[in-house]
């Protein structure tokens, strides 16, 4: 276990080779920058803005990451200290699997590195860790189960892992690896006394799950507040719901349409439009 709070990034000697990106406007990109990698930057920055807009984050804490397209050992994350509506495509940091900053200026929160590096090492493309209000509220109850009582809940049937062990801040790779083992390949982890981790094949799919998981938790909490028993959807109906959702790539396509619409909404606001700069 670590004896001091780790620093990830910053101005250490190991990061002397980093690249600083010039800020751009609109949907442009720095000259010569790979367009697919730039799109990943834009999408992740948009997710930060959307979480801020929807009150799905806490201050400058929590963290969202995505693997750099075409790589298996580097990912993008916000430099620690920015408000989430200050995040842009160009000010995101690119880190390697050892925590060296390859592009950008600043450092990331150590908890972000140790959680996300461990999960990305398993091949996950996008990892979102937040303390969304309603999911986090469920994680603070003795039985912090997402019950299959609503259509939105069914999206996650059989794909939620539950971690009853809260060890405080994640400040070493050992705890990151422990979280990976608890997740056991599932795309959602509800962490007792803490919050949620969501994994996806793209920023769009992970954000779509983050959004609908929060709505599912909100409905469940409202239903529980009546003091009446939850009405659970029969297992056969829940299973068929998942089959229907996945037909012809439906779920991934719905997520893309949803995320594209939300990005258009950001572009109509003075602050939100900065995400792609």
TrEMBL record:
One GO CC term, this protein: cytoskeleton
Signal peptide start-end: none
UniProt xrefs under SUPFAM superfamilies: AraD/HMP-PK domain-like
Pfam families, A to Z: Aldolase_II
Superkingdom of the organism of origin: Eukaryota
Domain Class II aldolase/adducin N-terminal positions: 42-221
Record PANTHER family: ADDUCIN (PTHR10672), CLASS II ALDOLASE_ADDUCIN N-TERMINAL DOMAIN-CONTAINING PROTEIN (PTHR10672:SF21)
NCBIfam families named among the record's database cross-references: PRK06486.1, PRK07044.1
Protein name: Class II aldolase/adducin family protein
Record organism: Bathycoccus prasinos
């Amino acid at each position: 276990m670590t004896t001091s709070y780790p620093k990830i990034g910053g101005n250490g000697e190991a990061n002397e080779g980093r690249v600083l990106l010039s800020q751009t406007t609109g949907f442009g990109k720095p000259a010569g920058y790979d367009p697919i990698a730039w799109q990943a930057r834009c999408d992740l920055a948009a997710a930060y803005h959307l979480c801020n807009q929807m009150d799905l984050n806490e201050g400058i804490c929590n963290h969202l990451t995505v693997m750099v397209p075409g790589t298996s050992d580097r990912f993008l994350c916000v430099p620690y200290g920015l408000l989430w509506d200050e995040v842009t495509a160009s000010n995101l940091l690119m880190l390697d699997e050892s925590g060296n900053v390859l592009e950008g200026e600043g450092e990331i929160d150590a908890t972000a590195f140790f959680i996300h590096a461990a999960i990305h090492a398993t091949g996950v493309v996008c990892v979102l860790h937040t303390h969304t209000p309603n999911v986090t509220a469920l994680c603070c109850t003795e039985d912090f189960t997402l019950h299959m009582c609503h259509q939105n809940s069914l999206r996650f049937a059989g794909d939620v892992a539950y971690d009853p062990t809260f060890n405080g801040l994640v400040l070493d790779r050992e705890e990151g690896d422990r979280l990976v083992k608890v997740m056991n390949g599932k795309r959602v982890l509800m962490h007792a006394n803490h919050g949620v981790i969501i994994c996806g094949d793209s920023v769009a799919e992970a954000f779509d799950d983050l959004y609908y998981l929060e709505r599912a938790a909100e409905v469940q909490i409202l239903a529980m507040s009546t003091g009446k028993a939850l009405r659970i959807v029969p297992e056969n109906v829940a299973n068929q719901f998942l089959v229907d959702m996945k037909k012809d790539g439906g779920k991934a396509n719905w997520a893309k349409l949803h995320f594209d619409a939300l990005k258009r909404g950001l572009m109509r606001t003075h602050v939100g439009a900065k995400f792609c700069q």
